[in-house]
Amino acid sequence: MNSPPAIVVRPLAGLPMFAPGMPIVQAICSALEAEGDGFRDGDICVMAQKIVSKVEGRAVELADLTPDRTAEDLARNTGREPAMAQAILNESSEILRATPAAIIARHRTGHVLANAGIDASNIEGGDTGTVLLWPEDPDVSARTIRAGLQAASGKQIAVVIADSMGRAWRIGTVGTAIGCAGLTVLEDRRGRAVDLFGRTLQATVIAVADSIAAMGALAMGEGDEGTPVAIVRGAGKWVYDEDGQGAASGLRPIEQDMFL
Asked: Fewer CB under 10 Å: which end of the chain, C or N?
């Protein structure tokens, strides 16, 4: 039997309250240095989507949006504010389900989630109409941050941008990779590995990036912990030189979607 790697994940303390234009790379490196630590080859830096969106200036004032007729209809059918409905439509390529319980949208990046990822929690002004959108392209954001962290540390690392998403048939949310760089997204073990009894695996495709995102999100917390970055250590076998195709490569093609 092959022993699995020992994987350790810990939140990174001492980070500032991020705002537009602030240097994420410098803040992360400074926080690590303050802990007497630094990046090692094979580390994975998981960060909450919100800090990336904040730094990229993705906050929107709902009062500045003018709902169109489609947004008015969506708001009426779901009990949402018309401006929020318009924000969701602006970020979506398709509305898949719309009920008072949830608006399930296909985000313009291809990810399927509630409210197109728009959120007001842990945002200054969130109780007065300020909401935060996803980064324009989370995979591009991950590549940019990775390049900066590698240049600053001289180590080969990976970056995952995580957000919490619900799942079909399950209650609750789990951290999911919406952007990543330098990390295996899917490990396809079909025809390449065997089980304990020598049978060749036929259907096993491991969602590596999502699993790492889930670990990081659990360590970071979802409330007032103030630790929007986690370091995952011991998963270096999935970290590689190239940036890769990003989290979008783990999306199921629309023609294979079993829930449409």
From this structure: N
Instruction: Decide: 45 and 158 in contact? Cβ < 8 Å.
Output: yes
pLDDT along the chain (260 residues), means of 10: 81 94 97 95 97 96 96 96 96 95 94 93 79 97 98 98 92 96 95 90 94 96 89 96 95 84
Residues 6+ apart with CB under 8 A from 233: 7, 8, 9, 40, 42, 43, 44
Query: Buried b / exposed e across 15-31, counting CB within 10 Å, b at 16+?
Result: beebeeeeebbebbbeb
Q: Tell me the H-state helices in the chain.
A: 24-34, 49-55, 69-78, 82-90, 138-153, 208-220
Determine the Cα–Cα distance for residues 206 and 214; give it in Å rounded to an integer. 13
Whole-number Å distance between alpha carbons of 184 and 124: 35
In degrees, to the nearest 5, what angle opens at C-alpha 242 toward C-alphas 44 and 22? Answer: 55
Domains and CATH numbers, the chain: 8-52+136-249 (3.30.1330.100), 60-131 (3.90.1660.10)
Residue with tokens 């296909």: 106
CA angle 150, 146, 173 (to 5 degrees): 140
pTM: 0.94
Q: How far is CA 104 from CA 74, 118, 248, in A?
A: 12, 11, 18
Beta strands 158-167 and 44-48, pairing class: parallel
CA distance 51 to 173: 19
